[in-house]
């Protein structure tokens, strides 16, 4: 493998890993509560069923028939108690009601304090994503340096790779901030 091919592989790997960090951030932020009802709010809640913990979306159909209402229809009616208990135990502060076959969750508007708490959660998750991106940068630059030390690439190739990796890092940390700002606006919307 030539020097450029080795460097391209390092950069491609870093790009893929940084992209995955952004996807993970977006998934994490789906569970951060806004004032609107969204199935993504509860779908990852772990429910103890059949002797194991399973995400809610594997046990039930979740819908948002109204802006401030979620309905959860378990595929197996015997799971309804466990689902209700898991929702109550979650840190979302939701109060489900069930009629034996369907769980309804009224999504109350967030108080100012609760919105501020949710924004802090968003900031934490964005910061975690940026740390992940910086760790990927460190790994990639370290790999490029090893290839230079092993004389697989020239010093110029290594320097060019480091610059490209830094540009990727800048791009993805900015993207994390933008993803966070969008979620923050959603949270602060009354």
Automatic annotation (TrEMBL):
Identify the domain of life.
Bacteria
Q: Which GO terms describe its cellular component?
A: cytoplasm
CDD domains attached to this UniProt entry:
RRF
Q: Is Coiled coil there in the keyword field?
A: no
Molecular function terms in GO for this entry?
A: ribosomal large subunit binding
Extract the Pfam families matched here: RRF
UniProt-annotated location(s)? Cytoplasm
The residue ranges of the Ribosome recycling factor domain are: 25-188
| GO biological process terms held by the UniProt record | translational termination
Keywords of this entry = Cytoplasm, Protein biosynthesis
Under the heading SUPFAM superfamilies, the entry gives:
Ribosome recycling factor, RRF
What does this chain do? Responsible for the release of ribosomes from messenger RNA at the termination of protein biosynthesis. May increase the efficiency of translation by recycling ribosomes from one round of translation to another.
Question: Which family is it part of?
Answer: Belongs to the RRF family.
- What protein am I looking at? Ribosome-recycling factor
In its UniProt entry, the species of origin is given as uncultured Thermomicrobiales bacterium
Record gene name: frr
